Amino acid sequence: MQIGFVEKNVRRILEDKKELDKVGLYFIETADGIADAFMRHIIKEETVEEDDRGKTRVRSIGPQGSSGRYEEDGEVFGGNSEGHYNIVQVEMHNLFTAFSGLGSNVKLVFWTSHVGTGKTKRTGETCFCPLLVGEAKNALVPSWVGECFHLEDIPLIMDENGQVIQQKQVRAFYENHRETNIMEGPQYRCKSRVGPSDIEALHERFPGGFIELGVRYGEGLDQYYRWLQERKGASAIEMKKWKEGIDKGR
Pairing relation of β-strands 25-28 and 108-111? Predict the structure, then answer.
């Protein structure tokens, strides 16, 4: 995998509008997996050179080289340096930015990631957030996207008599929250692109700060995006009526 490989393909697609017309959704699995691949790639791309005295040195990528790097039967081993983390974090931000610029023909780009930890910029508190590599940029990932959902599996719980106490449920949280039934500890960082004027309507449609998911048509995240599209139309009508009322009062 080459650094910048994905961006080059994104640019190529952008240049060919006929190709872009065929694309409705990009689904990228997983952000932390791609970041890990970049980290391994950096170690492999560093070169070992021998000087006039026969001593070997590693030509590093970035300000610091890998630690304990060695090669055996064509396989390269070694540990990443602090500088490598920074390079990959910046590269991942570039990838997110590149995909967000695909244009109006591509309606949605979905990234997935495992849960990692980070620190909020304002308070420095520890939080759960999408995982890249390290922790420095994790808490910023929600700001790189329109929505950041945290998916949580609520298990089926039954009592000793076989009565259902809690139904199995999969929830996509769109608001910051703590683990279900736990009031303490770090929060999961989530967000919705809904504007302040539509927050109340969002809570009415999807109470509890989450969207209940299912396996049948209309039970996935599409129900949220269909609602969002409907709200755009309703907001436009409400704005028009508001403007007409202002004009009449003049």
Answer: parallel
Whole-angstrom distance, CA of residue 96 vs CA of residue 146? 11
Q: Do you find a cis peptide bond into 30, omega within 30 degrees of 0?
A: yes
Average model confidence (pLDDT) across the chain? 80
* Kind plus residue range of the DSSP H or E element containing 233: helix 222-249
**In a 10 Å sphere around its CB, with 0-12 CB exposed, 13-18 middle and 19+ buried, how is residue 86 labelled?**
middle
Q: State residue 136 phi and psi, 5-degree precision.
A: -60, -40
Q: Which residue has the tokens 């694309």?
A: 23
pLDDT at 32 > cutoff 60: yes
Mean pLDDT of 57-67: 61
- Half-sphere exposure for 182 (CA within 13 Å, toward CB): 10
Residue 38: both structure tokens together: 């970049």
Q: Would you state the structure tokens that stand for residue 239, as one six-digit string? A: 């704005």
The enclosing H or E element of 117 equals strand 115-119
Which helix (DSSP H) or strand (DSSP E) does residue 3 occupy?
A: none
Tokens (6 digits) for 67: 């630690």
Contact assessment for residue 133 and residue 85, using Cβ atoms and an 8 Å cutoff: yes
Q: Radius of gyration (Cα) for the chain, nearest Å?
A: 24
CA 198 to chain CA centroid, Å, is: 23
Q: What is the pTM of this model?
A: 0.75
- Report the C-alpha dihedral over residues 157, 160, 163, 167, rounded to 10 degrees: 0
- Residue 67 phi/psi, 5-degree rounding, is -105, 140
